[in-house]
Each structure stands twice: as structure tokens, then as C-alpha cells.
Amino acid sequence: MAQNISKVYLMDCPLEDDLKNTLYFSSETAQRNYFTSIISRTFTNVSYQSETRTFRCPDKLDNVRQYNYMMWQNTAYSNKWFYAFITKAEYVSDGLTDITFEVDVLQTFKFDYTVMPSFIEREHTNNDAIGSNVLPENLELGEYVKNAGYELPQIGPLTMWYAVGVSKIEGSIGTKPSSVINGLPNGLFYIFTSSVSLLHSIVEAYDGLGKAEEIYNMFVFPRDLLNLGGPLYTETTWNVGNSSLTVYVPTTSEYVGRLEEGYTVYKPSKVGKTYEPKNAKLFTFPYCYFNITNNAGTTVTYHYEDFVDGDGKFNLEGVLCPGCSMKLYPTDYKGMSYYDNYDNSYDYGINAGKYPSISWNSDSYTNWLSQNAVNIGLGVAGGTLSALGQAGMGNVVGAGATLIGSVTNAVSQVYSASFMPNQARGNTNSGDLNYSAHKNRFTVIPLSIKPEVAAVIDDYFSMFGYKTNRLKTPNVAHRQNWWYTKTINANIIGNVPNDYMNKIKEAYNNGLTFWRNPSNFLNYNASNGIV
After folding, report:
1. What is the pLDDT of residue 371?
2. Between 19 and which of 40, 211, 307, 507 could a Cys-Cys bridge form, CB atoms 3.0 to 4.6 Å apart?
3. Which of 385, 376, 374 is nearest to 298 (CA)?
4. C-alpha span between 512 and 445 (Å, rounded)
């Protein structure tokens, strides 16, 4: 007669033998307390139970067939508890049932193995600050939509004045213009006015003196260039011919005019205007970003996460010249500051389209300038974003069919999304049109994926975390309810039989979700913040 040395308990447990999900316990005591709390059938008078044999249960088949899990302890040999999945229950006799089982290696050896630094392909992050997780995911993105809950104002000046460049000041003028413009000696003297009628008066006065050839150019410019950065102009009276004109002249121009300072493009709080994501990665490129266009053929893409606090801060500067030269640039971008002599964010700026010149009688310069110099658009910068869709190390895929592989295929990228409409490139002469349409400024275009696409990707991140691709120890117990870990060739050591150790490694390599609270097991609607 066999010696009564074993305890065997049957129960109904949410765990399944595919080892895609398991329960996390901080101690053996917590683990044992949970499993003993769900015991349904108890057998204490049974023989030594091996983890490789069928358990001959002294009970009717109908009494035990509904249970899917068991635990046992061979008390005469050790204090270790074994946990197993019940895979089959077969009738032997009216009071005897053979139960076939498979050891749950994750629970049985939970406190016997240690995961060493391994290549972590995916996991839930323990730092979800915007910009801290930017590895490409290679997911389907769809087309982009405008992503702003409010209308962003255009950047750039609205008040326009007119400049006349003359090679010689005829008549008398109260304050003579400086011959230094933009800090450089200039062969022309510039007179400024806000009145179109005064332009005609100047031309008529020079014509009356027979000096029409001394009027060299006329052009439109933003008035702001004159008085920001210092008192650069003065009002004066100009007596020329029979005309007495009130005009403005530069007294000095040692500065670059700063038209707008500290302009901010604020980071979004939603994706696609309406969707509020749970995972902050959706606020980064390529899910959210913004373009700035000069409306003359040049577009530059900016990533919110590459600014210091996620908000894009820009300055707009310009100098006075025919067509005007203006540039909008970030003040602190990609770790570079405009004020840093070594790391210069100025290089990430965008030049404005040109302002038009003005024609007048007997002038050959305007025709030449229009045909050769003014309104030449700049090449499109940063518009193709060819890096999108290239996953880099993200192309590493583990062997075997896994849950993560199946779900990833369902949301993977199948075509390259269109970022911007087709744009003219090269010599785009649009300054006159832009000026007439009040478009000779910078336009901010915040873009994002559509809300329904964002929801799909957000759920994916909630289930499987972010692409990691790092050699590290996996994050553990850092989330409220669950966390996912997927390794490639996991490095695990411990006092575990080799065949069981291989199953543990396989579970990590296939992708494994740990659940902290059994009452929320598989409940992806539960909160899952970082703890």
C-alpha cells in the first residue's frame, strides 16, 4: 500500500497553457495564498506525485472534469509547490479518474530563475515622457489630417511699406539717409514711405529734374524691419524739384531686424483633433508633427519631441533688401540652440518667399530682376521624410508564430502615407501672387494620423508596449496591472531542469504578459499607469 505523502489540489484558474499570459507575485507566500484561495477539490491521502506522470485521482470524473489547474506538494521530500495545467481527465472507474497535466513552468519555477540582461525587442516602458520612446514601429499610419483644435495664426508681418533706392539724393533733405544697410556699405540711398502716392511724387520729381536714371529700384518690405532691434529710421522732409515730401530714411542699420520673437507652436493634447491617447508615443513623429511652409515652395518638417518641452519656439528675423530676406528658425531644437556657437539650430530654419518689386516708367531693372533674381523659390526641405517606414533594428523578428506577430501583422504598414500635397519645386516665381493673396508669410500646418488609426495603434501599444531593441534587464512590476516583455534569445539562469528552462526561455522569446492583480486578469480596460 502506497504511503500517503502528497497533497494535491484542483481548481479553476484563469491561466492557460499557451504561456502568453501569467500572474505576477512578489513572493512565494503571495503566490501560494492566491492559489490556495481558489482550491475546489482537495486530496491529501495520495501517493508521491511526479511532475511527469498522470495523476490518478480518487474521485469521479464528473466531480473533477471542470477544473483546469492543479497544485501539489510532496511533503515527505521537500516544501516546494508544483503548479500545472490540467490537459485531460479520463474515466477509469466510478471512483477513479486519470488526470493528465503539464507543469506550469512560469509559476512552478517563478522564484528559481533570474532573467539576465537580454535583447529586449518590446516591453512596456517605465518612462512614457513625450520623446523618450521614438524607435520606429513600422505600423500602418494611413493618411494625415490637420491636427489642431484651434486655428494657428500665420507667422510674419502684415504691415507693408515701400522702399525707393536712389543713387543720389537730389534737392535737400532734412536727415540724409545712411549709406550703410544691414551693416554693409551700400551704393544706394533708401527712402521709405507708406504712401503709394508718394512713390509717384518721387518719380515725377526725378523726371522733372531729368534724373530718372538715378531711381534704381522700388520694392515692398515689412515695416517691422525698421524699428525692431533699435531706432533705425527717422521721419524727415525731402524737398525735391517742386515737391516737399514727408518720408522716412535709415539713420543706421547695424542690426538684423527681429520681426517676431518667441513665437510658439504648442504641442497637441489630442491626435486627429478628437482622440486622447493613453500612450504618449502617439504625440511623437510620425504620429504627430507639424510642417511650416513659406507658401512659395518650401516646407520644413518639425518634430514636437525634439523641442525642449515639446512646444516649438521660433524667432523670425529679416534684413532690408530688394525682395527682402527673412528667416524663421527654432531657438532650441534637437539639443541645439541659436545662441550656441557650436550647436546651431539656425540651420533648421526656413527662408521666407520673396516680396515683389515695383515697376515704374523707363525702368529696365525691374524686368531684369523679375526674370533673374526676385521670387526664386527655395528647394523643398525635409518634405520627403524617407526614413519613415524604415524600422532599423525593428526588422529583427523572433522565430515561431507568436501573438505579437499575429497582431503586428494586422496593424503593420502596407503603404507609404502621403505627408503633403504635391508641391512645385525649383524656380517657383510666386512672390507677387503670395503678396496679393496675403500669403507672403509662414503657415504652420500641424498634422497627425486619423483618430481611428490612432485608436488602433494606441490599443497595440497598450497590449504590447513599445519597440525597445536594447540589451537590458526587462522592466518588472512597473505598471499598475500588466506589462509585456518580448526577448530575442533570452538569457535566463537558475536552479531549473533544462527542459523546463527551455520552455521558460521560449515563453519570453514569444512574448509574455505579466498580470499583477488576478481580478483584472486579461482586462485591458483597467488603468495601467507607471508605478
Report:
1. 41
2. 507
3. 376
4. 40
Provide φ and ψ at 431, rounded to 5°. Answer: -60, -45
Instruction: Identify which of 465, 517, 461 has the alpha carbon closest to the alpha carbon of residue 486.
Output: 465
Cα separations in angstroms, 345 against 289, 304, 332, 334, 341: 18, 15, 6, 8, 10
User: What is the C-alpha to C-alpha distance for residues 323 and 218, in angstroms, rounded to an integer?
Assistant: 10
Q: Are 294 and 327 in contact, with CB atoms under 8 Å apart?
A: no
- Shared-domain flag, residues 263 and 384: yes
For the chain (531 residues), the mean pLDDT of every run of 10, in chain order, is 71 97 97 97 85 88 95 84 96 93 97 98 97 94 84 74 91 85 78 89 88 90 69 83 87 62 87 94 96 90 93 86 86 79 76 84 46 40 36 39 68 50 37 65 92 97 98 98 98 97 98 97 97 96
* 103-132 CB burial, b ≥16 within 10 A, e <16: bbbbbbbbeebebeebbbbbbbbeebebbe
State how far the alpha carbon of 75 is from the alpha carbons of 4, 40, 45, 110, 298, in Å. 10, 20, 11, 20, 78
Asked if residue 265 and residue 124 are part of one domain, the reply reads no
Domain identity same for 54 and 190: no
Distance of CA 117 to the CA centre of its chain: 28
Backbone angles phi, psi at 498, to 5 degrees: -60, -40
Q: What is the dihedral of CA 355, 358, 364, 367, to 10 degrees?
A: 50
Q: Are residues 231 and 277 in the same domain?
A: no
Q: Tell me the DSSP string of 443-509.
A: EEEEEEE-HHHHHHHHHHHHHH-EEEEEEEPPP-S-BSSEEEEEEES--EEES--HHHHHHHHHHHH
pLDDT reported for residue 321: 81
Half-sphere exposure of 102 (CA within 13 A, CB side): 11
300 within some domain = yes
Query: Which residues make Cβ contacts (< 8 Å) with residue 422, sequence separation at least 6?
Result: none
Q: In degrees to the nearest 10, what's the CA dihedral of 449, 451, 455, 456?
A: -50
Would you say residue 169 lies in a domain?
A: yes
Q: How far apart are CA 7 and CA 26, in angstroms?
A: 24
- C-alpha cell recorded at residue 429: 516665381
How many structural domains compose the chain? 4
User: What is 243-272 written as a DSSP string?
Assistant: EEEEEEEES---S-EEEEEEEEEPPPSSBT
193 with 318, same domain: the answer is no
Same domain, 190 and 152: no
Same domain, 64 and 178: no
Q: Which range marks the domain in which residue 497 is found?
A: 119-128+463-520
pLDDT in tens, 354-408: 888 888 865 444 434 444 444 433 333 333 333 333 334 344 334 445 677 767 7
State pTM to two decimals: 0.81
Q: What is the pLDDT of residues 140-172, one digit of tens each?
A: 999 999 987 555 667 777 788 899 999 999 999
Residue with grid cell 510658439, as numbered in its chain: 264
Per-residue confidence (pLDDT) for residue 397, from 0 to 100: 37
